[in-house]
Design goal:
four-stranded antiparallel sheet; 312 residues; single chain; TIM Barrel; alpha/beta; binds flavin mononucleotide
């Protein structure tokens, strides 16, 4: 029997938990030759800002051991272009859309939220990017001050009743504590984790392999860290969680489900295998059939803690 992969988050019903991590699936249509987007549970867009952004100079990605560094710098064509050019495309394909937003001020966060609140026939949730590690203004440096984070999420909450996820990076500080604070401000869930800041050196030129000194590390290298945070945040608050961080195959996805993830956002793996999302979906299904799991909720959060306190 086909297992039921339906995932419901505070009333939002998705046909399965597999989605794409922000910024790693082009503009979706670019991947459409490999992946029928209708098969995904949801699509998370790349981060949209109010004004267009050119992003950082090239080279801005490089491969590292078990991962990659990126310093894209939130390149996008801005809010107006997204609404005019991309919303009609997403409306046509009809997959629940989660729009990732970032502002350089609380006012900009509010403006983005208000605009997408008016597009509820297409936009089903917002991912509030509080953590891009490779942007100067509006990036992790700007956001490191906790009041700015809280002002941003408050501005979003004031402008919309859409489902909202705050996306956090360990670069911000104590992720579990910050998650609690943004939930208190009315965020519905947390998206974990954005990239960790790292660097790579070209030994011939003795300079960075990127056009900037640092970039955001993603891929299998960060999976254990992401898994730990998803587990901790779910345990502390039992809130909806979008997981990203090295989800490369079905086994990775299952690990995140077991520690409680609601949605599984596939990122860097899309660059290695454009069909990664669909392979993962198939693998989750096969595992459920083999293990006689008829409903994914039986698996979600079924982690058995090793921390029994014995011997302490
Ligand atoms: C090239 C690239 C671009 C990204 N762009 C964004 C972005 O625009 N907004 C965002 O919130 N996260 C962005 N991310 C972070 C991913 O969404 C994801 O959280 C992170 O890469 C961890 O998942 P992964 O290890 O599966 O890639 C980007 C990551 C990569 C590799």
């Amino acid at each position: 029997m086909k297992p039921d992969l339906t995932t419901t988050i505070k009333g939002l019903r998705l046909k399965n938990p597999v989605t794409v991590a922000s910024g790693t699936f082009g503009t979706t249509d670019e991947y459409a030759g490999y992946v029928d987007p209708k098969k995904l549970g949801a699509i998370i867009t790349k981060t949209i800002t109010v004004k267009p952004r050119e992003g950082n100079p090239m080279p801005r990605i490089c491969e590292t051991t078990a991962g990659m560094l990126n310093a894209i710098g939130l390149q996008n064509k801005g809010l107006e272009d997204f609404v005019e050019q991309k919303i009609p495309y997403f409306k046509k394909i009809g997959v629940p859309l989660i729009v990732s937003i970032a502002g350089e001020s609380a006012g900009e966060f509010g403006k983005l939220a208000k605009t997408f609140d008016g597009l509820k026939s297409v936009v089903k949730a917002l991912e509030v990017n509080l953590s891009c590690p490779n942007v100067e203004a509006g990036g992790v440096n700007f956001m490191k001050k906790q009041e700015r984070i809280l002002d941003a999420v408050k501005a979003v909450r004031d402008q919309t009743d859409l489902l909202t996820f705050a996306k956090l990076s360990p670069e911000l500080g104590d992720v579990v504590e910050i998650a609690g604070k943004v939930l208190e401000q009315g965020m519905d869930g947390i998206s974990l984790i954005n990239t960790l800041r790292g660097m790579a050196v070209d030994i011939r030129t003795r300079s960075s392999r990127l056009a900037k000194d640092f970039g955001g590390l993603s891929g299998p290298a960060i999976k254990p860290v992401a898994l730990r945070y998803v587990f901790q945040v779910k345990k502390a608050y039992n809130c909806p969680v979008i997981a990203s961080g090295g989800i490369t195959d079905a086994n990775d996805a299952l690990e995140f489900l077991i520690v409680g993830a609601d949605l599984l956002a596939v990122g860097t793996a899309n660059f290695v295998e454009p069909r990664a999302t669909l392979d993962i979906l198939k693998g989750i299904e096969s595992f459920c059939v083999k293990e006689k799991i008829t409903n994914l909720d039986r698996l979600r959060g079924s982690y058995r803690t090793a921390d029994t306190g014995k011997g302490k």
